[in-house]
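Key result, reporting period 2: structure in, sequence out.
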């Protein structure tokens, strides 16, 4: 039974922070940030905004665009590394806010790869027959995990949320659309290359992001090329079959390298890192929603989603929209 993406939505905090804004109190420059990463600005949460408020806003937009009634939804999966509370989950906060009173809601943690992990969880729970219509959300407020005292990470991250609705459909209803496959990977030997130096059970605080940027860059580029090759073989598709690359938005140089590996021209890559910076698990659904709403991504097109993040974790999803 096909599992189809029927709606998308996203949300950003009110406050935009440019590279020049950061350069006023951090030893950095617009030129350095843009050349190394492609980032021009990011959004930081303000008073009253949080991971859950952004997730709820994105969820409501996705529900509206899918045209489903909340009563039909039976699953909420939120990917986040920056929940409002240790518990309850952001997913149950979303569930309450949208007025959904049945089914199951929970969070998953896979850092920047989280959204594809969440999609895979929802896909397989629907495939099992236990659930039928899910909200899959990536939502983050990374601004709380960075400090101006570490310029190597402070300039890279931002806040935001993106959501999709996925539903099981009959072959006739789906008309060829649906999730073709999700593939998840991790290698915990690299856990010390990208981590937070705090945590509930260690320092009783969230801590800050610590990253060995060069090492992460090297592995991310290599893993993404490997994912492309493996996906083409596994699903028996040609590079030319892919209409859009919707990658995790960490660094334009990593995205360019993946696009090159796919022989995809820049106009087939959804690039939002300039506008949103790295919003971790939120970056893919944010980028996807933007390109769907501005009409670039059309129904029936083949989309390749890919991500790489702390753990290391990495993942891809191939979806006929
Ligand atoms: O989303 C999860 C996955 N994360 C990623 O994929 C991130 C992967 N890594 C990267 O994107 C890149 O490694 C960075 C953008 C983080 C850094 O770029 P880089 O080209 O690897 O720079 P670098 O770390 O090698 O630093 C180069 C220089 C250093 O100075 P020296 O030692 O050469 O004198 C840094 O101290 O740039 C300096 N630097 C800065 N200068 C101005 C580091 N951060 C900054 C800054 N502003 N914000």
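The corresponding designed sequence is given below.
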């Amino acid at each position: 039974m096909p599992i189809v993406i029927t709606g998308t939505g996203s949300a950003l905090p009110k406050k935009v922070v440019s590279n020049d804004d950061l350069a006023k109190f951090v030893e950095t420059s617009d030129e350095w940030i843009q050349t190394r990463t492609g980032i021009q600005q990011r959004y930081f949460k303000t008073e009253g905004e949080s991971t859950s408020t952004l997730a709820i806003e994105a969820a409501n937009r996705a529900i509206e665009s899918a045209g489903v009634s909340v009563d039909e939804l039976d699953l909420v999966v939120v990917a986040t590394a920056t929940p409002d509370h240790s518990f309850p989950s952001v997913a149950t906060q979303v569930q309450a806010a949208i007025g959904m009173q049945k089914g199951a809601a929970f969070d998953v943690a896979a850092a920047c790869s989280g959204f594809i992990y969440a999609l895979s969880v929802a896909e397989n729970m629907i495939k099992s027959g236990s659930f039928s219509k899910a909200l899959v959300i990536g939502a983050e407020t990374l601004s709380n995990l960075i400090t101006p005292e570490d310029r190597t990470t402070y300039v890279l991250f931002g806040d935001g949320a993106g959501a999709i609705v996925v539903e099981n459909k009959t072959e006739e209803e789906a008309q060829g659309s649906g999730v073709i496959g999700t593939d998840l990977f991790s290698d915990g030997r690299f856990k010390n290359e990208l981590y937070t130096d705090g945590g509930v059970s260690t320092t009783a605080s969230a801590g800050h992001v610590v990253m060995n940027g060069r090492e992460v860059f090297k592995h991310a580029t290599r893993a993404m090329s490997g994912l492309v090759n493996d996906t083409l073989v596994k699903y028996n598709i040609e590079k030319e079959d892919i209409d859009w690359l919707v990658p995790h938005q960490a660094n334009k140089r990593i995205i360019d390298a993946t696009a090159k590996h796919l022989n995809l021209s820049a106009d087939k890559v959804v690039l939002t890192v300039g506008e949103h910076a790295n919003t971790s698990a939120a970056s893919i659904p944010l980028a996807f929603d933007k390109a769907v709403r501005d009409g670039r991504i059309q129904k029936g097109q083949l989309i390749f989603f890919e991500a790489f993040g702390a753990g290391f974790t990495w993942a891809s999803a191939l979806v006929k929209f």
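The chain has two domains: 3-174, 178-320. The mean pLDDT is 97. This case is discussed further under Risks and Mitigation.
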